[in-house]
């Protein structure tokens, strides 16, 4: 049986973390294509600005304030979408934060905040969404992870671990959700020009714009593929590193880190990890 692919007539697209970056660009992209898009984030003003920007598009954007770290809030959000706007046909679990975690400065707060948003925030949205989709017998869910989730990299002990958990979650749930008629997809971007990466003070290789990321994700959502990953050159490198034996993996990583230090010395800083 072919996987379910949401079209505008099937219902509402729900995008979390839609006030900026990838989520915002994707909301506008799908609204332009005629979808009704429900958006949630903690910034009400930014969501209202997004809604106004979409007013002339073929579809529409509806605003629902919500904090993904609050499970009751997300239960109410899904119920509100279903009651006021129609069935949730597609969910893009995009909300996320990046907080560096380095061995010389480990602390509880970075891990707690990272997992509260990047992992538990996904679960808080996933559970009510699946309940409604299962009752109808169809739906589509896209988990937004990161290439940083493929393997351990310096500075990403919290962020990378949370994104690795999302990759494992999507892979694991695909088996059961497929049988329920729910199409599961995994989005793994590299560097995307967003407010998250704007905090970085180093050169980020193969960076794409938020619009390019939205275009790639929108195209992937209309396909039967499980893996929506980009940019391709960075994806190939990250996946290759993932399958190296540890002895070779750490040797290659040390080489790139030494090369990075040399480039920083001449004014071209680099980082080993992506963040969407």
Give the class-level CATH name. Alpha Beta
- Main beta sheet, described? 7 strands, parallel
Uncertain runs with pLDDT below 50, 5 residues or more?
A: 262-276
Number of E-state strands:
9
Mean pLDDT score:
90
Tell me the number of helical segments per DSSP (H or I, 4 or more residues long).
9
**CATH superfamily, please?**
NAD(P)-binding Rossmann-like Domain
Content-based structural category: alpha/beta
Helix content: 40-55%
What is the CA-atom radius of gyration, in angstroms? 19 Å
Number of domains: 1
Q: Looking at the structure, what is the overall shape?
A: globular
- The neighbouring-strand order within the major sheet is 3-2-1-4-5-6-9
Cα separation of the termini: 33 Å
CATH-scheme architecture: 3-Layer(aba) Sandwich
**CATH third-tier fold name:** Rossmann fold
Strand fraction band? 15-25%
The sequence of SSEs as H and E is EHEHEHEHHEHEEEHEHH
Family: Belongs to the short-chain dehydrogenases/reductases (SDR) family.
InterPro entries: KR_dom, NAD(P)-bd_dom_sf, SDR_fam
Protein name: NAD(P)-dependent dehydrogenase (Short-subunit alcohol dehydrogenase family)
Keywords: Oxidoreductase
């Amino acid at each position: 049986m072919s996987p379910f692919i949401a079209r505008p007539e099937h219902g509402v697209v729900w995008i979390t973390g839609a006030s900026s970056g990838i989520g915002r660009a994707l909301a506008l992209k799908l609204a332009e294509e005629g979808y009704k898009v429900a958006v949630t984030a903690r910034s009400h003003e930014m969501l209202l600005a997004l809604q106004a920007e979409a007013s002339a598009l073929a579809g529409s954007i509806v605003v629902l304030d919500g904090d993904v770290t609050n499970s009751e809030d997300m239960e109410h959000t899904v119920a509100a979408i279903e009651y006021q706007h129609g069935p949730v046909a597609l969910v893009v679990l995009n909300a996320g934060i990046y907080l560096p975690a380095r061995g010389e400065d480990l602390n509880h707060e970075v891990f707690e905040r990272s997992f509260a948003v990047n992992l538990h925030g996904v679960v808080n949205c996933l559970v009510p969404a699946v309940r409604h989709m299962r009752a109808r017998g169809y739906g589509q869910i896209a988990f937004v992870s990161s290439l940083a989730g493929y393997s351990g990299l310096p500075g990403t002990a919290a962020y990378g671990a949370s994104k690795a958990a999302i990759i494992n979650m999507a892979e694991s749930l695909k088996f059961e959700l497929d049988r329920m008629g729910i199409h599961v997809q995994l989005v793994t971007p590299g560097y995307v020009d967003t407010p998250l990466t704007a905090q970085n003070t180093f050169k980020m290789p193969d960076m794409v714009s938020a619009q390019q990321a939205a275009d790639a994700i929108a195209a992937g959502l209309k396909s039967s593929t499980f893996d929506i990953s980009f940019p391709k050159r960075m994806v190939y490198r990250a996946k290759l590193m993932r399958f190296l034996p540890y002895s070779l993996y750490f040797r290659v990583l040390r080489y790139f880190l030494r090369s990075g230090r040399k480039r920083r010395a001449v004014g071209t800083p680099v980082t080993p990890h992506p963040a969407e």
